[in-house]
Amino acid sequence: MIRFILLFTLLPLLFSCSSSSEGDNRSLPNATGKSGDVIILMDSLQWKGELGEAVRNIFSQEVPGLPREETTFNVIWVHPSKKIKLLTQIRNLVYVFTLDQASAGTRVITDNLSPETLNNIQTDTSFFLVNKKNEYTKGQEVMYLFGKTTAQLVHHLKRDGQRIQDFFNNAEKERLMASIVKTSSTKNHTELLRKDFGLTLHFPAGYKLAQQEKNFVWFRSPEAEIDRNFFLARQPYTSEYQLLPDSILAWREGICSTYIFEDPENPQSYITTERDIPFKPIKARQVNFNGAFAMQLKGLWRTNNKTMGGAFVSYAFVNTADNYLYYLEGFVYAPGKPQRELIREMEAVAQTFAPVTSPTSTH
Questions:
Q1: Which of 11, 93, 113, 353 lies at a C-alpha separation of 20 to 30 Å from 17?
Q2: Dihedral over alpha carbons 120, 47, 65, 237 (to 10 degrees)
Q3: For residues 266 and 319, what is the distance between their CA atoms, to the nearest angstrom?
Q4: Per-residue model confidence as pLDDT tens digits over 91-108
Q5: pLDDT for res 265
Q6: Contact, 334 vs 226, CB < 8 A?
Q7: Which domains does the chain have, with CATH numbers?
C-alpha cells in the first residue's frame, strides 16, 4: 500500500477584490520578475518573529513530489521604505502589517491606508486580507495581510495559509495558461484533440506528437537537458471508486507500462511510479479542476530499471460531456535541475482542458 498524504480542499477563501479597469491598465508597465517570485514587504522585527515565521510557512513551504527540496515560491523579503518603487513592479507583491506594531516600516504601509480601512481593521476581527489586481503594473497581484494585533493575524495565516498559497499558485498558472493558449506553433495538436477526442488542450512551443491510440495520446518536448512530456488517457466512467488514489495509480501503471517506454526499441524499459522513497510519498489532493471535482496526484516517476526518473503531476476527473474518466499527466526528466516551474507549467497545460460540443466547433 502506498503511503498517501491526502488533503481535502476547503471552500474558497472569500478574497476582497479590487481591480483596475482595462482603460487604466493600458497606461501601466508590464509586471516584472520570474515565475514564482514573491516580494514580502513587512517590518524587519516582525519578519524575524512569529509573524514572519507564519508568512514563511505559507510561501516557503516545500513543494511536494519533486526529487529535490524546492520552495513553493522564491521569497524576497524587503523592509518597507518609500525608496523601493522598482520592487513594487514585481508580479506578486504581499504587504504584511499589524496595528500593534508602531515601527517606521509599518507606518510606511499604513500611511497609505484610508481612515475607514484602519477603522475596519481595528473593529472587525474577521477582516485580514485584501487583494488587488494591476495596482502598480499589468499582470500583477498585490495582497495585503493585516490585523489589529500580531496574534490575531498569525491565527488567520495559520488557518488560511493553504488558500493564500493556492491564490498565488493559481495566479502563476493563469499567466502561464494565457501565454500557452497564444502559442501558434502547436495549434495542430489542439486541432487533433478537437477532431479525434472532442476536447481541447493547448501546449507551449516545442511539443511534438509522440504517440496516439484510440483512448491515449502522448505529446513530448525533448531537449538536450530537459524532456517535457504530457499524456492523456480516458476510459468509460462506471463508478466513483475509479477516482480513489489507489485506483488512479493502478490505471496509471497500466497506461505507462503499455505505452511509455524509456527506449521504444525495448518495451521492457517502461515508466512506473516511484514507491521506494518513504520521505517522498505520493500526495493526493481533491481539487476544483475547471469547475469539476478532480483528484490531483503529485509524486515521482522512474523507469522500472531505475535508470531515469523525475517529477509528475496528474489530474483524474469525469468529463460530463462524454461520461469518460480522464487522466491527464505531465512528467519531466531534468536530472540535477530545478523542476518546480516545469511542473507548474504542466499544471497550466492540464488546465487548458475543455470539452467541445462537436468535433468541428471552435474553442
A1: 353
A2: 0
A3: 34
A4: 999 999 999 988 888 888
A5: 67
A6: yes
A7: 13-180 (3.30.379), 184-355 (3.40.1000.10)
Three-state DSSP state, 210: strand
pLDDT given for residue 150 in this prediction: 96
And the C-alpha cell for 223?
Answer: 531537449
CB 97 within 8 A of CB 129: no
Residue 204 contacts residue 352 (beta carbons within 8 Å): no
Predicted confidence at residue 12, as pLDDT, reads: 38
CA distance 67 to 69: 7
Beta-carbon contacts of 297 under 8 Å, excluding residues fewer than 6 positions away, are: 245, 248, 249, 252, 282, 283, 284, 312, 313, 314, 315, 316
- Using CA atoms, how far apart are residues 259 and 69, in angstroms rounded to an integer? 30
Helix (H) or strand (E) holding 2: none
Share of the chain above pLDDT 90, in %: 73
d(CA 32, CA 51): 27
Q: Judge residue 128's burial from the number of C-beta atoms within 10 Å of its C-beta, 0-12 exposed, 13-18 middle, 19 or more buried.
A: buried
pLDDT at residue number 286: 96
Could you tell me which of 80, 89, 72 has the C-alpha nearest to residue 167? 72
Which region, left, alpha or beta, applies to residue 88 given φ > 0 means left and ψ of -120 to 50 means alpha?
alpha
Cβ atoms of 311 and 301 within 8 Å: the answer is yes
CA proximity to 108, closest of 83, 90, 148, 81: 81
Instruction: Output the CA torsion sign for 77, 163, 159, 67.
Output: negative
Measured distance CA(48)–CA(65) in Å, rounded = 29
CB-CB contact of 284 with 6 (8 Å): yes
The answer to whether the beta carbons of residues 128 and 70 sit under 8 Å apart is no
Determine the pLDDT at residue 84.
73
Mean pLDDT, residues 110-125: 89
| β-pair partners for 335 | none
Could you tell me which of 221, 306, 227 has the C-alpha nearest to residue 271?
306
| Residues constituting the chain | 363
What ranges make up the beta strands (E) of 42-139?
A: 74-78, 92-98, 129-133
Which amino acid is residue 248, in one-letter code? I
